[in-house]
Protein backbone atom coordinates (compact mmCIF):
# COMPACT_ATOMS: atom_id res chain seq x y z
CA UNK A 1 0.00 0.00 0.00
CA UNK A 2 2.84 2.40 0.74
CA UNK A 3 1.08 4.57 3.32
CA UNK A 4 -2.26 6.35 3.39
CA UNK A 5 -3.17 7.53 -0.10
CA UNK A 6 -5.01 10.49 1.40
CA UNK A 7 -1.71 11.88 2.70
CA UNK A 8 -0.34 11.83 -0.83
CA UNK A 9 -3.40 13.68 -2.06
CA UNK A 10 -3.22 16.28 0.77
CA UNK A 11 -6.48 15.08 2.34
CA UNK A 12 -7.40 16.22 5.83
CA UNK A 13 -9.30 13.04 6.67
CA UNK A 14 -9.90 9.60 5.18
CA UNK A 15 -12.61 7.61 6.94
CA UNK A 16 -13.02 3.82 6.69
CA UNK A 17 -15.57 1.74 8.54
CA UNK A 18 -14.00 -1.72 8.75
CA UNK A 19 -15.29 -4.71 10.68
CA UNK A 20 -12.80 -7.31 9.40
CA UNK A 21 -10.00 -7.75 11.99
CA UNK A 22 -7.26 -8.53 9.44
CA UNK A 23 -8.09 -5.50 7.32
CA UNK A 24 -8.01 -3.28 10.43
CA UNK A 25 -4.47 -4.56 11.16
CA UNK A 26 -3.37 -3.85 7.57
CA UNK A 27 -4.73 -0.31 7.76
CA UNK A 28 -2.98 0.34 11.11
CA UNK A 29 0.33 -0.94 9.68
CA UNK A 30 -0.09 1.52 6.83
CA UNK A 31 -0.55 4.62 8.95
CA UNK A 32 -4.26 4.66 9.72
CA UNK A 33 -5.48 4.82 13.31
CA UNK A 34 -8.67 3.76 15.04
CA UNK A 35 -11.19 6.16 16.55
CA UNK A 36 -14.54 5.43 18.16
CA UNK A 37 -17.19 4.87 15.53
CA UNK A 38 -20.55 6.62 15.65
CA UNK A 39 -22.16 4.05 13.35
CA UNK A 40 -24.74 1.73 14.84
CA UNK A 41 -25.74 -1.31 12.78
CA UNK A 42 -28.83 -3.41 13.42
CA UNK A 43 -29.20 -6.71 11.58
CA UNK A 44 -31.92 -9.35 11.63
CA UNK A 45 -32.15 -12.05 8.97
CA UNK A 46 -35.66 -13.48 8.67
CA UNK A 47 -35.51 -15.20 5.25
CA UNK A 48 -33.08 -18.02 6.12
CA UNK A 49 -31.68 -19.79 9.16
CA UNK A 50 -28.26 -18.32 9.94
CA UNK A 51 -25.43 -20.32 11.53
CA UNK A 52 -24.76 -20.06 15.23
CA UNK A 53 -22.41 -17.15 15.83
CA UNK A 54 -23.44 -15.32 12.63
CA UNK A 55 -24.26 -12.08 14.41
CA UNK A 56 -21.08 -12.15 16.54
CA UNK A 57 -18.56 -12.78 13.72
CA UNK A 58 -18.59 -9.77 11.41
CA UNK A 59 -15.38 -10.59 9.49
CA UNK A 60 -17.38 -11.90 6.51
CA UNK A 61 -19.91 -9.05 6.46
CA UNK A 62 -19.91 -6.27 3.86
CA UNK A 63 -22.19 -3.33 4.60
CA UNK A 64 -22.41 -0.31 2.34
CA UNK A 65 -23.92 3.07 3.11
CA UNK A 66 -26.71 2.36 0.63
CA UNK A 67 -27.87 -0.53 2.83
CA UNK A 68 -29.22 1.77 5.54
CA UNK A 69 -29.94 5.32 6.63
CA UNK A 70 -26.23 5.81 7.54
CA UNK A 71 -25.62 7.71 4.30
CA UNK A 72 -27.65 10.76 5.37
Give a nutshell description of this structure:
The protein is mainly α.
Description of the molecule:
This protein has 72 residues and is mainly alpha-helical. Helix content is 18%, strand content 0%. It is built from 2 helices and no strands. The chain has helices at 5-8, 21-29. The two termini are 30 Å apart. The model has no long low-confidence stretch (mean pLDDT 77).
**Number of distinct beta strands:** 0
The best one-word shape is elongated
How far apart lie the N and C ends? 30 Å
Tell me roughly what share of residues is in helical segments.
10-25%
Order of helices and strands: HH
Largest sheet: none
Please give the radius of gyration in angstroms: 15 Å
Query: Uncertain segments of ≥5 residues (pLDDT<50)?
Result: none
